[in-house]
């Protein structure tokens, strides 16, 4: 007697025995669930590297850049994608990009930083390489960048001064003044471990970019990336790259003085220590030292007589310096609270002891001493029947009293303001 044939559909067999059917359907589900296989397929298809190019009317050079990037991906055996972050091109750049197989991301908000942020947010790769679409960089040189990222770095910045700058690729003012000065400021203010903060060819981990929370809309985006990576303690490195003359017939979008100032301004705003604290401490100590020297009487230095007018200036310097120090504290607390700066251990330890009550007490004490000094000056005036006094002697009593009153009042209100900034959300 012949046994009934089994019919199969795909990989699922339908035996005559229903129990066998149950085993056939359930056992594979335990061994390799369908959703696990699907996620593996999705992961295998997802690009490892996303190359992002900001674009605003780059029809002359865009094709060569896209093709160079595609060749680099193929040569390196990398799963990748090329993204053109278009910032409102009207010269056919979008058509060129799509015809060459690049993914176009429309970014309506104008600005170099806005274009890159839009393109990077749309990137699907674990690693992101950003580079200008003006043919000034060779995308075929991205191998060392990917190697550094695979080794564990969060951000890898190109260094044009190590790799070489071809004749005509960079104006002399940028090469010898702008870039070196701004890079030195970045290294001093933020301990940024790079020698070229503004290189347009760089690579980073997508998750590191998300942690940076970059916001700069313009060319200062390049500085913001390095600064925030340094402040957050990320692993930053650099590799040599060659800068070539760009292939455009029109002038570049970069404007020397405007964009240079935007970079400098951003660095100052992100460094309350250098913008407020150090100048404030210098002014305060100069003012206090001069006041201490001039309180007993006039002083002659190199034939110049310093008297009550200098004492008045010294008091003003002390007040101004103290105000700048307070600004530094306010700004630092705000920057930490908003996530611009990481928490500062020394500041946290300080505020465990310097509480609102301590600040109010110190301010009240300075006010009290100032009031006592003013009362003493009035008593001296009364002793002569409120008549004429020696201006030199009177001002030596009044100026310190007024300065202490002002410092005490500032301390009281600053203590309240710091407490407001420190309130948990």
Q: Can you walk me through this structure?
A:
By secondary structure, the chain is of the alpha/beta class. The chain has 2 domains: 43-269, Spore Coat Polysaccharide Biosynthesis Protein SpsA, Chain A (Alpha-Beta Complex), CATH 3.90.550; 272-421, no CATH class. It is built from 16 helices and 11 strands. Helix 4 (93-99) links the parallel strand 4 and strand 5. The model is unreliable at 1-33 (pLDDT under 50).
User: Which range does the strand content fall in?
Assistant: 5-15%
- Are there runs of 5+ residues with pLDDT below 50, and where? 1-33
Kindly state the mean pLDDT as a whole number? 85
Q: How far from one another are the termini?
A: 82 Å
Largest sheet: 7 strands, mixed
Query: What shape does the CA trace take?
Result: elongated
What's the total number of strands? 11
Q: What proportion of the residues is helical, as a percent range?
A: 55-70%
Describe this protein with a few key phrases.
disordered N terminus, 11% strand, Spore Coat Polysaccharide Biosynthesis Protein SpsA, Chain A, elongated, alpha/beta, 16 helices, 11 strands, 425 residues
Topology:
Blueprint: E1 7-9, E2 12-14, H1 18-31, H2 34-45, E3 49-55, H3 62-75, E4 80-86, H4 93-99, E5 103-106, H5 112-122, E6 127-130, H6 143-150, E7 155-159, H7 160-163, H8 172-190, E8 202-205, H9 206-212, H10 221-231, E9 236-240, H11 256-269, H12 272-294, E10 299-301, E11 304-306, H13 308-337, H14 345-353, H15 356-382, H16 391-421
Helix pairs in contact: 8-11, 12-13, 13-16, 15-16
